[in-house]
Write a structure and sequence with these properties.
This protein is mainly alpha-helical and about 200 residues long. Helix content is about 65%, strand content about 10%. The chain has two domains: about 1-60, no CATH class; about 85-195, no CATH class. It has ten helices and two strands.
């Protein structure tokens, strides 16, 4: 499982940082290293402590796996200062794709909480905190009551929907700060699907 691989590495890094005689440079190197594993070129420009927290400022260059045109679009979107982009992205999906997204996210929720139908009142405010609209939440709630197999949920899932689904699924999965085997499996399958459909993935 993902957590079984990552957590021991994190504990090792924490012990290294705690015993380091140069904690500032060690933490900077650790941050850059971990982001580098994700293909992200980052540089720490500021590092300071504030009460019980560490504040970090970063500059991030185009990730290795990011196409130049996608990176340019990201920069342009950020420069507009429009925080509604996420909602707009969901709104651009067809009604069919929105329903498929709702069913997929319901599947992710069920993987992390098999009793989610009865626990909806507890889950609802947590999902609200992720920024889901009321209509999206109601669609997910309805989909939870009619479970579907993962293969069916991924059939005819358009690339834009799959990308949104991965981002939202990660947020849902990390609500309880852990990733179980089933959740990791779902994320892995979706990521593989996105890679297969990405430009240049086919000979």
């Amino acid at each position: 499982m993902l957590t079984n691989i990552v957590r021991p590495m994190v504990r090792t890094q924490i012990r290294l940082l705690a015993s380091s005689q140069s904690p500032h440079s060690t933490l900077v190197a650790t941050i850059v290293q971990w982001l580098g594993l994700l293909g992200v070129q980052a540089k720490v420009t500021q590092l300071a402590t504030d009460a019980n927290q560490i504040q970090v400022a970063l500059t991030v260059s185009k990730p290795d796996a990011c196409e130049p045109e996608d990176w340019q679009q990201i920069l342009e979107n950020l420069n507009t200062g429009n925080d509604a982009n996420r909602v707009e992205s969901l709104a651009t999906l067809s009604e069919i794709q929105q329903r498929k997204l709702q069913r997929f996210l319901a599947h992710v929720i069920q993987a992390g909480n098999p009793n989610c139908v009865n626990a909806w009142d507890e889950l609802y405010p947590q999902l609200q905190s992720l920024g889901f609209t009321e209509s999206m939440l109601m669609g997910i709630k309805a989909a939870i009551r009619v479970p579907q197999p993962l293969d069916l949920l991924l059939t005819d899932l358009e690339p834009d929907t799959a990308a949104i689904a991965l981002s939202e699924a990660i947020g849902i999965t990390l609500l309880d700060r852990q990733v179980n085997y089933r959740e990791n499996q779902i994320l892995s399958v979706l990521l593989d699907l996105i890679k297969q459909n990405s430009p240049g993935s086919h000979p």
